Amino acid sequence: MGKNILKKTCVGLLFTGIIVNAWVNDSWATEKTVESKGQDKISLSLEDISRIGLENNLDIQIAKYDAYIKRTGLEDSQSVFDIFLNGQAFYLNDQQNSDSSLAGTKNISNNYSLGLSKTIPTGTKLGVEVADARSASNSTFSSINPNHEANVKFTLNQPLGSNFFGMLDRGQIKLSRLDIDNSDFSVLERIEKSLADLQKTYWQLALRLEELNIARQMLERSKKLYEVFARRNKLGLVEDAELFALEANLIQNNIDITIAQQQLRIAQNALLLALNEEDFSLDIMPKSELTGLIERLTAKDILRTAVNQRRDYKQAKNDLEIQNINLTMKQNSLWPRIDLDASFARNGLEADQADAWQNVGEQDNPELYVGLSFSMPLENRSARSKKQKAENEKAKALLNLKRIEYKIIVQIKNAVDAVNMYTDKIKAQQQILDLQEKKLAYEEKRFSNGRSDSDTLVRFQQDLLAAQRNLAQSLFAYKAARIDLKQAANSLLDAYWTGKL
């Protein structure tokens, strides 16, 4: 299913970019060249990876289906207002002996009925039923034999106590909607986390590429230094031991490149896996660079954004609303069950079926029924315990809302502090790198004047290599910290997510 997804997506993005804006440097474009190894080389930006990942990442697809499954619960709760169709038909041929001479020895009945019933949001249950019955008997006392009875009946049931005017029915639907909203928040949280992990994987790839470039640069330095010492060794100006040390350093630099290449491939495979791409021969190269705008931040504005966008905070407010509704429903459950029942019916009785139905509308022979019933447990312990539980759950939900408010403040502050710490660290490490480059350049100048040796030069090269690696790793850590900050503020997904879940 995931085979060649990345290729197809990239080609589609390139085509779209050309159609929409041919003169813009298309951030969605993919440069595909076939190397001698037969690998497809694709250059992608962070935006490309993010949008492709939102479409193809399996964790994200699974999370979406969890939301879709949860939403089916709304129709289930709304089914209380469905229209029900009821019907009945039977035939009776009764020829049993009877102790009454008036009943006759043969009685035949054909009965048919069809009805509709529906509960409306006020809790009122309305019904209508039409019935037709044909009776025939050999009894001599039947005034109309055979006869047809047509009947039309309207019914009404209205709760006046528990479920007062449909309070419980409507409450269940509100709870279902809030529960679905909370499910959507949780799913979006999972999607945003998957997106954050994907972007970190992308920057991890950029880091591995930078480390490979650093290792190659160091190899070039080592080669030049070895060549200088080799020429001087032929002239008898340096000892063999120094040349041996430089040769060992050269071999070590080649080993470092091999390791860096393997680490780069591992990072590429991790990104392909996150994109659900089955073609692991693809060679993804990051278009976005680790270097960029490095700045300190303040938590004030970010906190304001976080409070408005944090999904766990919205979910906690929904939980509080759920407990408010639940408490209201449990308080209503304390009431006795009081039902108002009413019905109105008219019938027609004739030997002919058509005449019987005509009499239903023409003759004034109604049946009107109005009744009131109630029931309630005298101790009512179950309803009281459920109400007490609802009160405690509401208090708990309120405390949880406060806890999340404090949690947001702490998380945003910590995330901002982390970004600022890496900002300062990068500036310091950039200074260290500059000093290491100056130190090595100065020592190379001393060597040209015959005032240095191979051990010092190799050691200074290693110091420069360590400074370059430390700076690259701090740049990666800064990118990861910015991602963590956006995730903590729930603003990462908004930059790439369009439409509804």
Structural summary, described in words:
The strands form two sheets. This protein has a six-stranded antiparallel β-sheet with strand order 3-4-5-6-8-9. A three-stranded mixed β-sheet has the order 1-2-7. A hairpin with a 5-residue loop joins strand 4 and strand 5. It has 501 residues and is an alpha+beta fold. It has two domains: 315 residues, Outer membrane efflux proteins (OEP); 115 residues, no CATH class. The chain is elongated and about 145 Å long. About 6% of the residues have low confidence.
Briefly say what this structure is.
The protein has 10 helices and 9 strands.
List keywords for this structure.
single chain; 501 residues; alpha+beta; Outer membrane efflux proteins (OEP); 2 domains; 6-stranded antiparallel β-sheet; elongated
The overall pLDDT, averaged over residues, is 88
Assigned CATH superfamily of the largest domain: Outer membrane efflux proteins (OEP)
Q: CATH topology of the largest domain, what is it called?
A: Outer membrane efflux proteins (OEP)
The count of β-strands is 9
Radius of gyration, whole Å: 41 Å
- Secondary structure tally, helices: 10
CATH-level-2 architecture of the largest domain: Up-down Bundle
| Overall number of structural domains | 2
**Helix and strand pattern:** HEEHHEEEEHHEHHEHEHH
Q: What characteristic shape results from the CA principal axes?
A: elongated
Uncertain parts: 10-38
C-alpha end-to-end distance: 22 Å
Main sheet specs: 6 strands, antiparallel
Across the major sheet, the strand order is 3-4-5-6-8-9
